[in-house]
Write a structure and sequence with these properties.
mainly beta, single chain, 30 strands, Porin
């Protein structure tokens, strides 16, 4: 429907993204761009896509070993490949190489690289036990994702084309319902096989030291968590967004800062019959600060708002509500029919002991005032807490045993008995919930989920051999509300990553014992159902020759 408001249209990979009455926004963005242009240009390479687990974990381990700059928080991803300037060198560590150079000018102002070929495959007999896999969907049976691409840079301008293609047999299984929880979370993506081409981890940017502005379809990860992130992970596919972000820590007299502000478009899955396919506007930010007096300590926050397109206003606060008050006495998101979620986080790097601890605390319903928060800080809360440590292995050079623990809790606290805050990632005025294309943007364990994991592995460079024990409770809020028993999965995984020159192979074999599968606990006339299932994954990454 044509409206009388002014329109600003930009065409992104063939899709039109409409923002109403955005003349002021364009002026502000151009102003920021001009301000940043006074800084000298920095040499950029391609970003490391969220989901390239082998590389991400490798870089994080190198930081524990003091081989990567301790100013890098690892709480804003994708990571720019500034690691070469941050303490690592391709000359001394060939594992750093991600893209392969096709052309590079003498002054490095012109660069063309070919990105790795990635082929991810999986077979899941447990369709509910799958997250942090980007464009892939939660489905039973065989699934495959293929991605490849190019990166090119000319002065401050860069383009990364890294599309992907997904195919899933999407086998039939006994479904608990047509959708999983009060949001756009279908338990099965249609009745037939599934296939989809997307722009994957692609972006177009203007880069200035130390800021980048651009259009992107990349997956994002906010916060210190490894298994789960409360506000932004790669469980859902990447979504189209405008981004203004730092590309490396910005050093100031009081410490270093990393940040990102984005405006994006979220889509429905089309597989939840009760919901329309109307798109939603997302405004989000993440901020990380390292005090100069506490090297290795990172303090940060995330915040995001989403609203149905038809309910959007035309003011600055409608497009950038990130700077509005946190207290309900000053502003009410319910009146504006938009959904807000927020979190604060901490990551503490302990280089002397080759360890790290991290914590994230989130709220999906902000308090009326400060007194309200102090009286019931557990209201609407969720949290993740984790620990990682490297232990030298028998005194061998560059060989370690890595031990990690992570706990995530999204089920409501006991105060729901007198003050219900609703399930995480759901909202009355935004019925799709905090989702994109049928999967949550945040923690993959979903609304009301609780998760605990212990992993132990031998690691050397990119190579890894180990196991992981997990406990995953599905939507404890649903079980409590409907007097169901707990649906709990206990999983054991054997994992292995191996480098063969330019080829990296990752494997995972997982056995899962489900107790009270789909909340069938034998009570109230429901037959008790326990079930053993198997998931298997194989990933192949090929890095082309230099």
């Amino acid at each position: 429907m044509i409206q009388r408001n002014r329109y600003f249209l930009f065409f992104y990979f063939g899709d039109t993204f409409s923002i109403r009455n955005s003349r002021g926004i364009v002026v502000r963005v151009l102003f920021l761009l001009c301000i940043q242009a006074i800084f000298p240009l920095v040499i950029f390479s391609q970003s490391l896509p969220v989901g390239m687990r082998v590389f991400e974990e490798y870089y994080r381990r190198k930081q524990l070993l003091s081989a990567v700059d301790s100013n890098i928080s690892f709480t804003l991803r994708p990571l720019s490949s500034f690691f070469v300037d941050a303490g690592l060198s391709e000359d001394t560590d060939s594992n750093l190489r991600f893209g392969s150079k096709l052309y590079q000018s003498a002054n490095r102002r012109k660069i063309v690289q070919i990105l790795p070929l990635s082929w991810q495959q999986q077979y899941h007999s447990h369709p509910y036990y799958a997250w942090n896999n980007g464009s892939m969907i939660p489905a039973k049976g065989y699934q495959s994702m293929l991605s490849a691409g190019l990166f090119a840079k000319y002065g401050p301008f860069s383009i990364q084309l890294n599309p992907d293609f997904v195919f899933a047999t999407n086998d039939e299984f006994n479904e608990v319902s047509t959708h999983y929880g009060p949001a756009d979370l279908p338990v099965r993506f249609g009745n037939n096989s599934y296939s989809r081409f997307s722009w994957g981890q692609s972006s177009i940017r203007l880069n200035f030291d130390p800021v980048s502005i651009g259009i992107s379809n990349e997956n994002l990860w906010w916060g210190p968590g490894i298994q789960n992130s409360i506000l932004m992970s790669n469980t859902a596919p990447g979504f189209k967004h405008l981004t203004l972000n730092t590309t490396k820590p910005v050093k100031t007299p009081i410490g270093s800062i990393e940040a990102q502000i984005l405006a994006g478009r979220l889509e429905g899955s089309g597989y939840t019959p009760a919901l329309t396919n109307e798109w939603r506007y997302l405004s989000g930010m993440v901020f990380s600060y390292q005090p100069r007096w506490f090297n290795g300590l990172f303090l940060g926050m995330t915040r995001s708002f989403q609203i149905n397109n038809e309910n959007m206003g035309n003011g600055f606060d409608d497009y950038f509500p990130l700077f509005s008050a946190f207290q309900k006495k000053k502003t009410s998101e319910d009146d504006k029919k938009r959904d807000q979620v927020t979190s604060v986080f901490l990551r503490w790097l302990l280089k002397e002991t080759k360890a790290e601890v991290y914590f994230e605390y989130g709220l999906n319903d902000h308090s009326y005032n400060i007194r309200d928060f102090l009286m019931t800080p557990e209201h609407s809360r969720a949290y993740t807490i984790g620990f990682n440590k490297l232990i030298p292995y028998k005194g061998r050079d560059q060989e370690y045993v890595q031990v990690g623990v992570e706990l995530s809790h999204l089920e409501q606290s006991i105060d729901r008995a007198f003050r219900n805050s609703g399930e995480w990632y759901t909202h009355n005025d935004v019925p799709h919930g905090y989702t994109h294309r049928g999967e949550v943007l945040g923690a993959g364990i979903g609304p009301g989920g609780n998760f605990a994991a212990l992993n132990v592995a031998w690691v050397k460079s990119l190579n890894r051999l180990g196991f992981q024990l997990e406990r995953y409770e599905h939507n404890g809020d649903l079980g409590a509300r409907q007097s169901y028993g707990e649906w709990v999965d206990f999983a054991f995984s054997a994992v292995a990553d191996r480098v063969y020159n330019d080829l990296i192979i990752s494997t995972k074999l997982q056995g899962i014992q489900s107790q009270n599968y789909q909340w069938n606990d034998g009570l109230n006339g429901r037959p008790k159902h326990d079930k053993f299932q198997i998931n298997a994954e194989v990933g192949i990454i090929y890095r082309f020759k230099k």
